[in-house]
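Quick one, probably user error.
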């Protein structure tokens, strides 16, 4: 019996690393939000600004990081990111002012920008072509399990304080992430393998001896193409590239605002903090249905139409969120928003790979992430500022939902694939 294709081990390792990082940072920040305000007396807008600085720095660094991923490969980049992010959370436990809070979050942002999902997308896109959608869906779907970390962080914060929770998060990043980084490999061809586990014309001489850890052997030629291979220069000169860039800004703005302010908003509606943390967990877990489901469908149906459906589901969920008045209202919110938000994640990388190929995947992804960071930077601050001025979150989330529906969905439907300019060799 042939061993499991090594690409699936890469999917599993990247998913686990990224899941933990997302659980303590992107989704977990909402658990730290209220304790920080209570201890230091900061406004919600100024506290949200840390998350926006994290997204801004990540966006500014993304093009350079994308270039480095193309040049250095996934293992070196992911190992560096894991080591620095763990250190960043330990430094977070030592802050004593708004200035040090911002400085540490910029360091955390730099650490996060070096690896995790962008590196995972790069590695998986290189190891799969025909099965790329489902592979990216499983990579992204695993991240949904990180929702369990939010109640854990909340419990540690309630029991021992937010500083202890930050130290625990940082050490956990090292314990989980560093060993898994050793699994990562750049492309299958140097190991006598082909994408998707297709059988090469000859077998790697090491495949029987070390079935789970490829070692370099004679290169094979990659077969199959998504229809075109674009350099970064060629990609940015297409209308599709900029339609795609702009279409994703508003959804990411709305999503970032919601995940930063989700627990504070639910507390304002009278939902206890422990229950609010479970709502975050439920939202992220249900996003796994969207991640795997839309990833699987992207190998079979038109990706931009699936993206429009995912955006529409997210919009309806956000409109429900803006009108939560009772605990049972969170159920349709979690289902619609979670599935829609989750579905967008594998589709994002799948569309990029289909439209522009993989020869400059990291660099192109970096430019796109830099553009989308504008939205993730502005969203939390706008929501926090709106609350500071009006004392209410409802209208700002209503505006976010309607804006995505009116602008982003038409843009993504107009984003047809460009004509191929260069075929892979």
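Nope, works fine. Designed sequence:
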């Amino acid at each position: 019996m042939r061993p499991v294709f090594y690409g699936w081990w890469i999917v599993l390792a990247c998913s686990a690393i990224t899941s933990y990082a997302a659980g303590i940072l992107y989704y977990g920040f909402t658990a730290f939000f209220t304790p920080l305000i209570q201890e230091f007396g900061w406004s919600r807008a100024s506290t949200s600004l840390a998350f926006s600085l994290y997204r801004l720095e990540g966006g500014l660094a993304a093009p350079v990081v994308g270039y480095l991923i193309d040049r250095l490969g996934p293992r070196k980049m992911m190992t560096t990111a894991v080591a620095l992010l763990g250190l960043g959370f330990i430094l977070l436990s030592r802050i004593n002012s708004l200035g040090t809070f911002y400085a540490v979050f910029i360091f955390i942002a730099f650490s996060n920008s070096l690896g995790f999902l962008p590196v995972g997308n790069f590695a998986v896109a290189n190891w799969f072509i025909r099965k790329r959608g489902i592979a990216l869906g499983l990579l992204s779907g695993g991240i949904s399990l990180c929702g369990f970390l939010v109640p854990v962080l909340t419990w540690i914060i309630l029991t021992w304080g937010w500083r202890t929770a930050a130290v625990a998060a940082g050490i956990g990043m090292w314990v989980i992430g560093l060993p898994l980084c050793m699994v990562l490999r750049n492309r299958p061809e140097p190991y006598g393998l082909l994408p998707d586990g297709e059988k090469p014309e000859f077998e790697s001489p090491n495949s029987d001896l070390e079935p789970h850890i490829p070692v370099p052997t004679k290169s094979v030629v990659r077969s199959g193409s998504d229809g075109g291979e674009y350099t970064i220069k060629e990609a940015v000169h297409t209308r599709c590239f900029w339609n795609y860039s702009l279409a994703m800004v508003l959804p990411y703005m709305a999503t970032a605002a919601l995940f930063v302010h989700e627990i504070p908003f639910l507390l304002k509606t009278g939902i206890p903090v422990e229950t609010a943390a479970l709502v975050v967990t439920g939202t992220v877990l249900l996003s796994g249905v969207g991640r795997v489901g839309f990833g699987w469908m992207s190998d079979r149906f038109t990706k931009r139409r699936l993206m429009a459906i995912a955006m529409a589901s997210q919009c309806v969920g956000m409109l429900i969120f803006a009108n939560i008045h009772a605990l049972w209202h969170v159920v349709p919110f979690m289902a619609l928003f979670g599935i829609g938000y989750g579905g967008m994640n594998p589709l994002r990388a799948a569309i990029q790979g289909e439209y522009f190929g993989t020869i400059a995947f990291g660099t192109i992804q970096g430019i796109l992430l830099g553009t989308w960071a504008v939205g993730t930077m502005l969203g939390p601050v706008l929501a926090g500022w709106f609350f500071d001025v009006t004392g209410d979150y409802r209208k700002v989330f209503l505006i976010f939902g309607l804006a995505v529906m009116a602008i982003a969905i038409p843009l993504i439907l107009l984003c047809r694939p460009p004509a191929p300019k260069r075929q892979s060799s």
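The mean pLDDT is 82.
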